[in-house]
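Posting this for the archive.
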Amino acid sequence: MMSRLSLWVAALWWASLTTLGFLVVPLLFVHLPTPAMAGSMAAKLFTAQTWVSTVCALFLLLQTRSGGASAFEHRARAAMIFIVSGMLLTLLSEFAVAPRIVARENLRLWHSVGSLMYVLQWLCAAVTFGKLLPPRQTGQV
């Protein structure tokens, strides 16, 4: 049961990053009247995403510490480095990069750093999700 829940949590983490970063935020900049309004709303949404990502990663980390020897536990331990990396990236983005973007401090540099960190976090979530998937059975239709 916990392996299914963990898979759903990994899916939520990856899908929320995908939806926010690659759909919602770009639409804000297209449809809101000014880039300042879009940026302000995007900052609030990214803060919310920070907490979604952190909760998902913490839950998944707790699952990797169960100490069992099942196939799922082996897959979860293999994903641990990506879970930790994704969580560190989200926390660094929120508490080190975002304040500089909001303060408009060297905006081009910090926006680029933040975007890169977001894509790396997205990749960590995707790899985590992929590693938690059960292996495909060959020969079945």
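Helices lie at 2-31, 35-64, 71-102, 107-132. DSSP finds four helices and no strands in the chain.
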